């Protein structure tokens, strides 16, 4: 609990014993879907015990549990992806049933670069209606080859329509990349996360997706992938300051401000739509300077708490807090530019706004 409110982590991934990845390897190798996954109860319990103890250490009450994105296998043949997706979602559902007060499901979709997105809709509906999940992971580049249309393209509209119909939230989290240029980079999927998430944000912000789909809610992981580098004329330099009632708008300069003699300079400003009810960003970033800047740029009102515990940050100590780097709540407490209302919004209120189906589970 934080200030009397449940701490809800919107960015968690399943913890599984080796049997799970062994099943995936056999599925890819044997090229048959007639076998089903079987994991001994003791092995599953051990994986869950470690996961829950790490949540407790970081003061996380509830975690939205999704597949490990690097293991979604979207680059495989459709029949393999479909079997693996249903196996993964059934496993997530079983973990949620075992710990109904701690875990809520986020679905994997059977995405494939060689199929239309409509092929993923039955599984989304099954997970929301039958398994009680509250959203689904969306991989903007399922083939890992940058050939799938951008998230502003009509290719995605059937998924957006179904998500609206179900009140389900879409969580943008890429998987691996097969770009040969990055093969020498360890854990190159992290680079792919940055580029694909940042591109998704730009395409969604500079399109009419949310005008077409006003009930659609999208959460982009890792603070939206990348920070904004340029000041935007007319926008706030510090969205958090604006939320606190301070003036931080970027003003015109040079010719636009009349500071240069000569030919007149005109500029037509596009009205920027308010996406604060549609487009959110999670706090899953472990560098405190990156996370702090992201909160200032996005604003506390659009940030949802996310940690990825346990994951890539669990074994790295944050020297700023003296805690593991994925103890994101400790980082938020460390930031003196936040007040308690900002922190409560991020760890509780905003998560409920971004995932309305949570209401049927906890509230």
UniProtKB/TrEMBL annotation:
Alphabetical keyword list: Lyase
Pfam families, per the entry: Amidohydro_2 (PF04909)
Signal peptide: none
A GO molecular function held by the record: hydrolase activity
Superkingdom in the source lineage: Bacteria
GO aspect biological process, one term: secondary metabolic process
GO CC annotation, single: cytoplasm
Gene3D superfamilies: Metal-dependent hydrolases
Residue ranges of every copy of the Amidohydrolase-related domain listed in the record: 8-357
Protein name (database record): 4-oxalmesaconate hydratase
Organism: Pigmentiphaga kullae
């Amino acid at each position: 609990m934080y200030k009397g409110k449940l701490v809800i982590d919107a960015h968690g991934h399943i913890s599984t014993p080796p049997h799970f990845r062994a099943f995936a390897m056999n599925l890819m190798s044997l090229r048959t879907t007639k076998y089903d996954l079987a994991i001994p109860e003791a092995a599953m319990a051990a994986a869950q015990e470690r996961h829950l103890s790490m949540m407790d250490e970081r003061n996380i009450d509830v975690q939205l549990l999704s597949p490990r994105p690097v293991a979604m296998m979207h680059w495989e043949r459709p029949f393999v992806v479909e079997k693996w997706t249903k196996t993964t979602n059934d496993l997530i559902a079983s973990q949620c049933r075992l710990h109904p007060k701690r875990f809520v499901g986020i679905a994997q979709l059977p995405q494939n670069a060689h199929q239309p997105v409509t092929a993923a809709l039955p599984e989304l509906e099954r997970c929301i209606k039958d398994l009680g999940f509250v959203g689904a992971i969306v991989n903007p580049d399922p083939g890992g080859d940058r050939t799938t249309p951008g998230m502003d393209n009509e290719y995605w509209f059937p998924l957006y329509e179904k998500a609206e119909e179900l009140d389900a939230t879409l969580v943008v989290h890429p998987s691996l990349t097969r770009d040969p240029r990055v093969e020498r980079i360890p854990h190159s999927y992290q680079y792919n996360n940055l580029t694909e998430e940042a591109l998704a944000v730009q395409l969604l912000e500079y399109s009419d997706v949310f005008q077409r789909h006003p009930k659609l809610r999208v959460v982009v992981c890792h603070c939206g992938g990348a920070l904004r580098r340029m000041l935007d004329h007319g926008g706030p330099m510090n969205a958090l300051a604006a939320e606190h009632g301070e003036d931080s708008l970027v003003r015109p300069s040079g010719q636009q401000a009349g500071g240069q003699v000569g030919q007149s300079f005109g500029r037509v400003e596009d009205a920027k739509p308010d996406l604060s009810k549609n487009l959110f960003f999670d706090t899953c970033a472990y560098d405190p300077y990156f996370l702090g800047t992201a909160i200032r740029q996005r604003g506390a009102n659009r940030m949802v708490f996310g940690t990825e515990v346990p994951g890539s940050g669990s074994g790295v100590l944050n020297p700023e807090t003296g805690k593991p780097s994925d103890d994101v709540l400790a980082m938020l407490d460390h930031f003196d530019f936040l007040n308690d209302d900002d922190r409560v919004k991020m760890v509780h209120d905003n998560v409920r706004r971004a995932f309305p189906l949570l209401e049927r589970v906890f509230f």
